[in-house]
Amino acid sequence: MDRMSTEDRPSAPRSLAEALRGRDDVSLGALLRSRPDLITPVPTDLTQLATRAGTRASVVRALERLDRFALQTAEALAVAADPATYDELLGLMAGDDADPAVAAALPHALGVLREQALVWGGDDRLRLVRTARELLAPSPQHPSPTGLGPTVQEATAGMSPGRIQEIVTAAGLPSTHDSVSAVTSLTELFSDRRRMAALLAGAPADSLDVLERLVWGPPYGQVTADPAPRLRWLLDRGLLLPTAPGTVVLPREVALHLRRGLAHRTPEPVPPTVEAAAVHRPQVVDSTAAGQAYTSLATVEELLKDWDEGGPAVLRAGGLSVRDLKRTAVALDVPEPVAAFWVELAYAAGLIAPDGEADERYAATPAYDEWRELPAAERWSRLVTAWLPATRTAGLVGGRDAKDRTLSALGPGLDRSAAPEVRHRVLALLAGLPEGTAPAAESVLARLRWERPLRGAQPEDDLRGRLAQWALSEAELLGVTGRGALSAHGRALLGAPAAPAKSPEAEPSGPGDKLPVHHRPTHVTTLSATEQAVASAAAARLLTPLLPEPLDHVLLQADLTAVAPGPLRRPLADMLGALADVESKGGATVYRFTPGSVRRALDAGQSASDLHAFLAAHSRTPVPQPLTYLIDDVARRHGHLRVGAASAYVRCDDDAVLGEILADKRAASLGLRRLAPTVLAAQSDPAGLLEGLRAMGFAPAAESAEGDVLITRAHAHRTPPRTAPEPVPDGPPVPDDTLLAAAVRAIRAGDLASTTPRKPGTAPAVNGELPRTGSAETLATMQAAVLTGEALWIGYVNAEGAASQRVIAPIRVEGGFVTAYDHTADEVRTYPLHRITGVAELADDAG
């Protein structure tokens, strides 16, 4: 943004409201876009907008969204004179050596502060808004990030006139007749580089060491009642000034002289470069990411399969218990933090939810069945599209909340509104690197700290840094990145253009060039829902050819195992999952056939002949004889025993088998007794009886009340339809162009109504208050204005109860309505008279 000169400005604004009034609509819209809290709700006029822009909450939010150099510029203005000139600000930022990088970057940083209404006024009268100055100016309770202390005038406030005169004399200045002039002369001495250098030239070396320790802050130190000679020399000349008993401070003017004019020890006009940790061939990155993307799908499917018939119980406070999370981690063969991520991701995608039953448990949702039927690439895009805007943060699981309660997976307290913005920004930084380049994690964190510095927070409180680290690891788990570098489908997911041939950090910049690369906006522009859908579809198209093609066969082996050399088609995978247990996973999956797994398939309604036919049809190798024998043996014994509800009973045509069960000591807990030669009654329920008999080596089958065998089918339990959790917004949403244009028009209209001159004797508007007149006076004034053609100022309350001010030219009044040309809306409108709160005539020269 170009600096404003005195000649270009017809008159200097006297307030922030006047400065805003001088902006055009584009500039006003830019302010509302960068600070969306200012239009929630839309201000009635520019005076109210300026008031809202100066509130503490709004200013704090705006300061927290400045990059480091813009914040340093605001901090420098907070310790400068009020108002300050541009040259004074440049001196504080660039120092006596006039750092060219700082000089080149300062106009843009000042432009950002002006755009966000944190600074107003021309270059000869720069003013930081009062709330920002209060937040950033140094004080004993809240030290400034600059490390500077109070000015001489502030530090000597309340000091006795005699003591001030003693300091002036000891500093080699002539005595004055009053304290004000004495403080002024002392300030001028400390601000004069040449005279100050001459004064310090005679200082003892020990005294200079004291100044050196205080110069970069904190500027406060402790002294005894009888200071040492090195301190006494400084105190006598005002180079250290007492602020409280036993406490001294280094005046700001003295510190600036010792710093060679710098407000900050290290100005940072240029953001840190995102450095490369490794460079890989793009094809390697894409294939690695695709492999991990497929693994992510398999992991989520395995999780949901484990919870298909009812997952872990929901804690009373919500979420998973620590024991259930550990059990899930073991089932997925991943560490607990990674298991928490997969659980939260499935929840964010709407694939799992509480079932809402009395004994509430987590289970798959109907959306899971729809998701499973999609092609692999589309299933992946659904997951990452849910991950990008999610505010629930799995990395917090296991930590503590503000009340020292453990944060559990799927439980409350995991939302962090900054997570989506950090996630997008991390991926955007990766997208700015050449293809195949994996960044050094610390350089990414350093860049984010520059873009959003920590104000007054300790490094361990760096939530954005932790969110960035989690974003990098989660992107790798999902296959958005491969070997740390952004993949082609990951780039498409962001809607990002092709990667640059070289790092953008290397582009030249300097005074007079177009906006330097390192000063391009650092905020993240998220895609709209439609744009994100298009980007997700493009990412799925790029990922599809990289994913392995599902197979329709396995390799059966003589050791009762089957090897799947790749992903299996859905019917084959489902059937094999019921018939065998997964023994190992990887590039090839190994399944093992056991009596229990075969019985599970028989329980699901399959017959021995069905299983033989299935294996023969899908095996590229002959069906081994041991597997044939295993299936026939289990099928021969399957259903020989029948279990039903009496409370529970066992019946068998072979009474010898029942006698064997009764004689077995392991059956004691079942409470069995013989009712008939072929029937045993049990005290346990049918499910417990089934499990007990199976543990004893039998293969019982459950039967219905009619005596038919009950077929146990998988995937039986689903929650009612559920919606995915909504992300928690990080403040008001950024308004779109339509809302911005409407807000600007409304603010302009209200400002026109509140600032239009009134006729003498008419009370002026105060703080946007509407005019008040009686209904008879309102009607008479309207009718008179129709005859004279004069414009009127009215207060109006619409049907929703929203009040506004308008300038209208009445055309006709009839039937309880006034039809008028609305100057604020620039169109003819009709208003009910009963909604007009009052009316006032405008001065003849109001136009």
TrEMBL record:
<feature type="region of interest" description="Disordered">
    <location>
        <begin position="496"/>
        <end position="516"/>
    </location>
</feature>
<feature type="region of interest" description="Disordered">
    <location>
        <begin position="137"/>
        <end position="156"/>
    </location>
</feature>
<feature type="compositionally biased region" description="Low complexity">
    <location>
        <begin position="496"/>
        <end position="511"/>
    </location>
</feature>
<dbReference type="Pfam" id="PF13625">
    <property type="entry name" value="Helicase_C_3"/>
</dbReference>
<dbReference type="InterPro" id="IPR032830">
    <property type="entry name" value="XPB/Ssl2_N"/>
</dbReference>
<protein>
    <recommendedName>
        <fullName>DNA-binding protein</fullName>
    </recommendedName>
</protein>
<dbReference type="Pfam" id="PF13280">
    <property type="entry name" value="WYL"/>
</dbReference>
<dbReference type="InterPro" id="IPR026881">
    <property type="entry name" value="WYL_dom"/>
</dbReference>
<feature type="domain" description="WYL">
    <location>
        <begin position="777"/>
        <end position="839"/>
    </location>
</feature>
<feature type="region of interest" description="Disordered">
    <location>
        <begin position="752"/>
        <end position="771"/>
    </location>
</feature>
<feature type="domain" description="Helicase XPB/Ssl2 N-terminal">
    <location>
        <begin position="554"/>
        <end position="676"/>
    </location>
</feature>
